[in-house]
Amino acid sequence: MVISDEKTTKKHPEKQCFKKYRIDVRMPNSKRITKTFFRKYDADKFKSELFIKKNKILNTGIYINDDIAFKDFASFWLKNQILGRKADKTEQCYKSCIKKYINPVVADIKLRHISYHHARTLECLILNSGRSTVTTNKILRILKAILNDAVKLEYLLRNPIRGYPELKEEPRNLNFWSKKEIDLFISKNQNNELLDLYLITLNTGLRLGEICGLCWDRVDFESGHLIINRSLTRYGLRNTTKGHKGRYVPMNHIVRGLLKKRLIGPNKGFVFSSQDGKPVSYEHMTQREFKKSQVDAGLDKIIRFHDLRHTFASHFMMNGGNIYTLQKILGHSDIKTTMIYAHLDQEFLHQAADIVMFG
Q1: Could you tell me where the DSSP H helices lie in the chain?
Q2: pTM (2 decimals)?
Q3: Considering only the top CATH level, what class is 70-152?
């Protein structure tokens, strides 16, 4: 620390005599950091922070660039860690959550100054906006992921909110059709040109983007599998799925029969397409097509297209399927995601109650 005096001069007689405290430190990477303060307290504080940072670098061999504001690192993170690596829908979700919830809390905070306090403030902000605990946990996981990558990219030594506890989530209320509702839907939609698409989804559990993006070059009649490694989104066909892993989905005799009926000649395009070869509309499937098909069938329970996946998975388990096999069919990376299907409907539970009886 260097102390210098500023005295009054003839040119500036209004200036008062005061001291300035200059800090001059050379970092291990040869970078020289110099800064001047008017208070000794501020100079001492800055000098201590620099020495701590210098010692961390000497001890770990890593230069920690933790002087960056969160909003700047988040922008860098989205561009370099997410763009092209995640599905477009996921990327847009991340951008929205950062802009709407995370940035208002920590945008101008330096990475090194983020703490549990900021995570709690963010949690309260989300909950007070009326969002569910599921959404709150999801947004907090995004913040954790950003800070985890800050550690990997050597902007931080550790994640300051690592281990922050998630909120207890209410059990998910899954909508799925009973066998009776499935039969009613099928019988009332015999003339529907999309019936084959609905039936294959009910028999395979494919996601909407996966069934819409299914091409004939991914249908293997010899092995009896569908090769699922593409997905259709509003941005077009992507050579990836939600989990970024390809998988093989077995075809039962119904799926095999439907596909062989639709295959005419050496077709290499989409399995479900319009006359001009374009795939069926991904964006309009749920509201314009599937919902109308349910109303026309007179169903009381109107479900989303994604609930056909829930229907497949639920009946798979109720008919004696194995949870680990279901995980592979659905393409879940984590068995915890598949465990939400390890439940039975009320009628099945009532039958199970009669298995053991005493008295």
Answers
A1: 40-60, 70-77, 88-97, 103-106, 116-128, 133-152, 179-188, 195-204, 208-212, 253-262, 291-297, 307-318, 323-330, 335-338, 346-353
A2: 0.66
A3: mainly alpha
